[in-house]
UniProtKB/TrEMBL annotation:
Domain 3-hydroxyacyl-CoA dehydrogenase NAD binding: 5-185
EC number: 1.1.1.35
Gene Ontology biological-process annotations: fatty acid metabolic process
Name of the protein this chain belongs to: (S)-3-hydroxybutyryl-CoA dehydrogenase (NAD+)
Organism expressing this protein natively: Candidatus Nitrosocosmicus arcticus
Length: 379
């Protein structure tokens, strides 16, 4: 088993980004979409991105053409997968759409081809059952944008052959990304298991403690040393992404987050964050505007419940042997921009205060806040 030729299905932001980073590593890539106009737009973006790399002296001007020409855009599916060793599905995060794609692939793809889904939340084992090769099916969750983000979560399903996991992990290393293995196919995988519940908890905190978004975001940025506030990060990620991840995670595991209705309201009103000009905050112009977060605002609030929920879910991942502590910390640093290990946040911000807050919330709002046993072991 050796991966040389790759087909990427779907030429959107994730699809053409995955195609580009694979082409830059010397792989021959076919980028497939259902209409030529989508492919033309994607290839324009690939050329622009490669030229930006050249302007910053990260690649040579000659390499722009070499890497660009490593990608072949095609509409016909059978031709697109003809020489593939690995097919990466990067279509929108819709289970029914993915089901349709895999039904079509089953009838056309050779039995030795590995199928990989770039899903951010859909269960890999569930998706693998849509195919005729659960043993050759795996999750590869790239982060947006793939050209810049180093992290890739690798998620084997229950039936995934260990050799497939090894081959795909080798591929991730060869494209100069950092793979982390999610050893169990759990809701949210690693990063979203920590990040998404924090967004909902920040909303509850705002209501329960009667504080503003800017105060909470300032506290998260300056007291927890996040690269930006949690509402700001959600807007940057896209509230469509947050909503769909929340929905899928909650559908499959009621214990993973406490849903706040505001996320669905924003999604339904198409206020999706920076991309639409409005989400939790309003944005003007094409350039990303930073929210006015200050240490002074941060001093007005202790985000004990937010860090409590984050470390509780991180503890659950370790307690259930979903990943190693090393991979957990690497995933959160590369995927969320954390500056220190997650449990160091816990220790730095007062373990007793955080635990007491979780116990107080458990008494009022139920077992979601029950402290994980692992937190007691590191307190």
């Amino acid at each position: 088993m050796s991966i040389k030729n790759i087909t990427v299905l779907g030429s959107g932001i994730m699809g053409h980004g995955i195609a580009q980073v694979s082409a830059m590593a010397g792989y021959k890539v076919v980028l497939r979409d259902i209409e030529q106009k989508f492919l033309d737009k994607a290839m324009e973006k690939v050329k622009w991105s490669l030229q930006k790399f050249a302007e910053k002296n990260k690649i040579s001007k000659e390499e722009v053409d070499i890497f660009y020409n490593n990608i072949t855009p095609l509409v016909d599916l059978q031709t697109a997968i003809g020489s593939a060793d690995l097919i990466i599905e990067a279509v929108p995060e819709d289970f029914d759409l993915k089901k349709k794609v895999y039904q079509e692939l089953n009838s056309l793809a050779e039995k030795n081809i590995i199928f990989a889904s770039n899903t951010s939340t859909l269960p890999i084992t569930e998706l693998s059952k849509l195919t005729d090769r659960p043993d050759k099916f795996i999750g590869v969750h790239f982060f947006n944008p793939p050209q810049l983000m180093k992290l890739v979560e690798v998620i084997p399903g229950i039936g995934t052959d260990s050799k497939v996991t090894e081959e795909v992990t080798n591929y991730i290393n060869k494209i100069n990304k950092r793979p982390v293995i999610c050893k169990k196919d759990v809701s949210g995988f690693i990063v979203n298991r920590v990040f998404i519940p924090m967004v909902h908890e920040a909303l509850y905190s705002m209501e329960r403690d009667n504080v503003s978004m800017e105060v909470i975001d300032s506290a998260v940025k300056y007291k927890l040393e996040f690269p930006m506030g949690i509402f700001e990060l959600a807007d940057y990620t896209g509230l469509d992404v947050v909503y769909k991840a929340s929905y899928e995670m909650n559908l499959r595991d009621k214990a993973v987050l406490l849903l706040h209705p505001r996320i669905k309201q924003l999604y339904d009103s198409h206020d999706l964050g920076q991309k639409t000009g409005k989400g939790f905050y309003e944005y003007k112009g094409d350039n990303y505007e930073r929210i006015d977060l200050t240490p002074e605002k941060a001093s007005k609030y202790d985000p004990y419940s937010i860090i409590g929920v984050a470390t509780n879910n991180a503890s659950w991942l370790i307690d259930n042997e979903v990943c190693t502590i090393e991979d957990l910390n690497i995933a959160l640093k590369l995927g969320m921009g954390l500056k220190m290990d997650i449990f160091d946040f816990f220790k730095k911000n007062g373990p007793d205060n955080i635990m007491n807050k979780l116990l107080e919330l458990e008494s009022k709002y139920g077992s979601f806040y029950h402290p994980n046993q692992y937190l007691y072991s590191i307190k």
